[in-house]
Amino acid sequence: MLNIGKEKVDFACESCGQTIEIRLEQAANEETIKCKYCGVNIHLKDNGSVQKSIRDINKSFNELEKSFKKLGNIKF
User: Fold this and answer.
1) How far apart are CA 64 and CA 51, in angstroms?
2) Where are the domains of the chain?
3) Is the pLDDT of residue 76 over 70?
4) How far apart, in whole angstroms, are the C-alpha atoms of residue 23 and residue 10?
5) Rg of the chain on CA atoms, in Å
6) DSSP string of the chain?
7) HSE, side-chain direction, 13 A CA sphere, residue 18
8) In terms of pLDDT, which residue wins out, 51 or 76?
């Protein structure tokens, strides 16, 4: 099963502007990450949209997987 929360996205450090990778679940969990370039701590914020999107996308993937399994059981 695919978990979209494990996918990485690019994020620009607010301090130095360098691009760092974060996992979507880190944003949803509002984790504090450290910039690997300048060392500043960045507290990620989510207004609920990342968490909801992860949940909705994962649900859709699960439903799609179930549909494919049902198609495998069809006899012609």
Assistant:
1) 20
2) 4-72
3) no
4) 9
5) 17
6) ---GGG-EEEEE-TTT--EEEEEHHHHHTT-EEE-TTT--EEE----SHHHHHHHHHHHHHHHHHHHHHHHHT---
7) 11
8) 51
33-75 tens-digit pLDDT: 999 999 999 999 999 899 999 999 999 999 988 888 888 776 5
Q: Which two tokens stand for residue 38?
A: 């300048």
Per the CB < 8 A criterion, the answer to whether 32 and 42 are in contact is: yes
> What is the Cα–Cα distance from 76 to 62, expressed in whole angstroms?
25
Residue whose token pair is 């450290």: 34
